[in-house]
Amino acid sequence: MTDTFKNTKKLYIKTYGCQMNVYDSERMAEALGASGYETVDVPDGADMILMNTCHIREKAAEKIYSELGRYKQFKRANPDLKIGVAGCVAQAEGEEIMRRQPMVDLVVGPQTYHRLPEMMKQVDAGEKALDTDFPEEDKFDHLPNRQLPKRAPSAFLTVQEGCDKFCAFCVVPYTRGAEVSRTPERIIREAQELVDRGVREINLLGQNVNAYNGDDWSLAKLIWALNDIDGLERIRFTTSHPNDMTDDLIEAHGTCAKLMPYLHLPVQSGSDKVLKGMNRQHTAEQYIRLIERFREARSDILISGDFIVGFPGEEDVDFNATMDLIREVNYGQAYSFKYSARPGTPAAERAFVSAEVADERLQRLQALITTQQRALQESMVGKDVDVLLERKGRLTGQMVGKSQHLHAVHITADDLEIGRIVRARITNSETNSLGAILAS
Ligand code: SAH
Ligand code: SF4
Ligand code: F3S
Fold it and tell me: Is residue 184 predicted with pLDDT exceeding 90?
């Protein structure tokens, strides 16, 4: 066999949704790379367009169909173009996608994309391919190893998938299936490969990452093992559920040098009544106590969260309890959403809060979070932080990277090596970033 004649086809992948989809898109590109596909940055001229989709809110799902409509022009220009839908909309809607958009050639769920090369053979033969199983085998056993060229200094690594929590609003347990952890051995091997390719920071991913239990290891034990990899400088994890938090994980924030002082811990609401309706299985008070324990372990830890406003049954008093919780926790960062009824979830059957009320609450909540976020950023002006350099800035003489607290930092500096960690002095705070100079 010779490599001199290689028929490369162009693959355009568009990714929606959470970080796990970003990771999955990379792995799908690798899987299809073995079939002669090379990824490109624009859909024009591509031989294959693959949308990796998200089903979490109604808008996210509808966006997929309008985007598919837009791809019609490419199919007209190139009748051989193949169009595929992957991810959580694929899992939730399956064949329905092909019914609504007959030009779709392939539908593949998040647990079966290791079968993509086989599916592409079917598609190339002019057939439609659909696979939304939850197979017995582990897809990661069937994917190529990640021995590829040098890559960006920060990478995602999925360690756990699926969710058994069944929050009353959420589609994830249906689209991603039951909780499954990968073995520590495979994760450590993959982490080493990433580090060999220039990665300095690994963000461990799971829908419920702190429920990790591969070979009966806790997430903290896995983090400690990764801490031993030379050349790996930073470890992060996301997303956690309050009820799966373990003592060793809290403790590691005070003792594990490479574990970053950042915790994304969604609470969704500060009202016990709403939390009950959401089936979150914990109270606002329990969540606050948990945050306190993290702060005792690591006083400068940045807390991030997720909130839903306008959940069925949320009254003013409940919303005010959420605002109180936010004041008490003091977030460095948070994502907030208007409740979106998802077909098939228990809460979708309940009476809605009006859109006007939900809109108004969302605005008030976001304003409060913004105030907290700004105050934290302002308080950092004049301080020195460690920045992992990720790329050159858009302006010349500027480098961009991330602080330990995941703030984007724009440093006035010429051409420093990407992947290096430098000490920088914060000079100013912008809306979504910090400005800095190199610290002497
Ligand atoms: N596993 C993670 C998050 C999954 S989805 C967790 O439990 O935290 C990310 C966020 O989307 C959720 O935290 C929630 O805030 C939001 N979300 C999920 N379903 C939603 C819905 N039906 N309507 C509005 N927001 C939703
Ligand atoms: Fe969805 Fe709840 Fe599971 Fe998070 S914990 S993925 S919000 S069901
Ligand atoms: Fe969306 Fe699926 Fe992630 S629904 S948020 S892409 S797990």
Answer: yes
| From 172, 239, 306, 308, mutation site for ligand 3 pocket: most ligand atoms within 8 A of C-beta | 172
In this structure, which residue's CA is closest to atom 18 in ligand 1? Answer: 170
Range from 132-141, 152-161, 415-424 carrying the lowest mean pLDDT: 132-141
- The CATH code belonging to domain 145-260 is 3.30.750.210
Distance between CA 37 and CA 22 in Å, rounded?
A: 18
Q: Which helix (H) or strand (E) holds 173?
A: helix 172-175
Alpha-carbon radius of gyration of the chain: 23
Q: What is the mean pLDDT of the chain?
A: 94
Distance of CA 357 to the CA centre of its chain: 29
With both helix axes pointing from N to C terminus, report the angle between 284-297 and 316-329 in degrees, rounded to the nearest 10: 10
For the chain, give every domain's residue range: 3-131, 145-260, 384-438
C-alpha 336 to ligand 1 mean position (Å)? 9
Is domain 3-131 given the CATH code 3.40.50.1820 in the classification? no
Residue 411 three-state SS:
strand
Alpha carbons 303 and 348: distance in angstroms, whole number:
30
Residue with tokens 């006007």: 356
Span 109-150, pLDDT tens digits: 999 999 999 999 999 999 999 999 988 778 888 877 765 667
Query: At 69, is the secondary structure helix, strand, or coil?
Result: helix
Amino acid at 345: T
User: Whose structure tokens read 């051989």?
Assistant: 80
Q: Span 384-438: which CATH code?
A: 2.40.50
